[in-house]
Write a structure and sequence with these properties.
Chain A: Belongs to the ACBP family. The complex is a heterodimer. Chain A is mainly alpha-helical. Chain A contains 14 helices and no strands. Chain B is an alpha+beta fold. The chains are: A mainly alpha, B alpha+beta.
Amino acid sequence: MGDWQQLVQSIVLGLIFSFLVAKLISIVLSFKEDNLSITRSAPKPEIPDDPNPGLAHETDSVVAEHGSVRNDSVPGSDVETDDDDDWEGVECTELDEIFSASTAFVAAAAADRLSEKVSSDAQLRLYGLYKIATEGPCTASQPSALKVTARAKWQAWQKLGAMPPEEAMQKYIDIVSELYPSWLDGSSLKSRGGEGDALSKDARGPMGPVFSTFVYEEESGNELKMDAIHAFAREGEVDNLLKCIESGISVNLRDSEGRTPLHWAVDRGHLKNTELLVSRNADVNAKDNDGQTPLHYAVVCEREAIAEYLVKESAATDIKDNDGNSPSDLCEANWPWMQVAGKQID
Amino acid sequence: MGDGKSPPGSPKENPDNNLDANPLTKDDSSLETIVRKFQDTSLKRHKFWETQPVGQFKDAGDTSVPEGPIEPPAPLSEVKQEPYNLPSPYEWTTCDMDSEGTCTEVYNLLKNNYVEDDESMFRFNYSKEFLRWALHPPGYYKSWHIGVRAKASKKLVAFITGIPARIRVRDVVVRMAEINFLCVHKKLRSKRLAPVMIKEVTRRVHLENIWQAAYTAGVVLPTPITTCQYWHRSLNPKKLIDVGFSRLGARMTMSRTMKLYKLPDSPATPGFRKMELRDVPAVTRLLRDYLSQFVVAPDFDENDVEHWLLPHENVVDSYLVESPKTHEITDFCSFYTLPSSILGNQTYSTLKAAYSYYNVSSKTPLLQLMNDALIVAKQKDFDVFNALDVMQNECFLKELKFGPGDGQLHYYLYNYRTRHALKPSELGLVLL
């Protein structure tokens, strides 16, 4: 009888054991399959490839909360006529993808000990943002003051309060991009039109040409001295400009190159500022150190509406600059009122 | 076997766990888990190239490794006859660029999904005419113009191409494929279609008994033969500033900027004129002679010159200097037309860019020749003239008021090792 019991027991144990082995194998296989994306078959509605159902669920809820908002807010820079059904189940939201990739990068960097270069402050910020993005606001109780690291982490998380997960993901990505500007190089992730300041390097594909734009070089050796009124005129800030004038600053104040606020407003094409300055008796024929008037600027910068306005406000079309050119000489577009006005003055 | 009870995907039993030495603390274990598969893909991206016959980083600088093919050609019978498998919702298609419908599909795919700048303000907008020109050089193979369609909708979702070229590396002329226009629809970027597309185009190249390829990328892969820098010359500075291609410093005036980039109305070199069909033999001689000084350069014959360099409206422009006395062709310059969509600007929708192509100077100084090229580009209403620092370009860039760009372009050879990396000035090859 005892033998029989033992036999049953060992059969049962054997069954349990083989069940567990089978289970393990199937987990292993399914994990592998999930990761071999090339051979993967039908698209899955959940976040693709996530090996951890528990976490997938959590992340899912984050996505669910924000997914619809995000999809709506993707700017329609491409007018695409394609039926969105084509993509059903294929997409996971872009922010989520990039966030996941950035967390992966951070973990890889940590494994490579690159992180030793990263300040612990930055690491804590990343930790806090990660927790918010994946778990939401901190509800855990404060760890004992003796556990220094745990407490620092808790604080990093706790102080973010109820920051929305989406914002946390974005900030996380921003920090990673700052720490490792090239982290997205070669990644298969791509940004969608207009969405991605933080995604910078992202638009570069695995192969093919590169779209390059000018590197912005800080002007060196430009000793220009200018006042606030010039800057307001330049930036088109009508209200601030008005305040300056009303506070008694001369409307014809010169910068170190002899330019008046009117020169700056015309140069940047701000018609409103131009009108304001002229209405406050700015000198329409003020010359800068090169002998150029605001009308020279308007003509050279091809600002037709402003030039027309200045001529109407009796700006001279025949004043010569230090190179001997008048505004009408420089006018390549042959604006009729430019020539006519010139003749009238002649 | 107690591990079998722990939740699936926990770190312990994860088969791909390659982080045994992971220094992350226990608190980070959830992070560790969620990221593993992404990490896996990020390693794979080099894993992919490490499986390919390309110069490997570990061999860089090792001059004992011989120059030449990395793997010998295989017998054609050993080349896989069947296309690689795609994820099941997709299927391969060959894109006939002579068909207006297909050409339009390819054009639209690229227009909406191809290369952008870092800030997604611009996206290349290769014209249909340009694509036909770029993909139909002498001896092209239709089968190398590869598309991927969604099975259900038949929508074109990805594209990659090869064209045949003879490229000389030092003294050896090698038949190669130039691989270009790899584009995956934005909505499928996470599907990792690119590696299988690269493998498929490679397979089709092998089927033509060609075993080497040339390509470029904006990213560093194993291993660039050289790394070039883009330079830009403003032709329409006001528009470039308005659309964010360049910036106007707070202390700089638009008026001075306009003056700085102003160009004369017409070219200065006597005998400077558009290239014509009758010039093909002379231009070919001139170009072959000139390109012989570079370590890697195309081996152009007259057919190639006629295709690539004879002016083609809105695609490629070529000018030469014919000596007014001897009527000898002494100098040559060319640029191709590659507009880009301006994303999200109210006023402008297209940026018209000229890209420096092949330039040869024998009598006229290159500086003067290129200044004339800028002048004709300006006449043709281009907004900007772009050039790489390849060949002898460096000698005119700064002088002609080109400014450095933020784009670096890496050049690669597939299954061909060069003894050492080249300087950009040793490269005589421009890929579109």
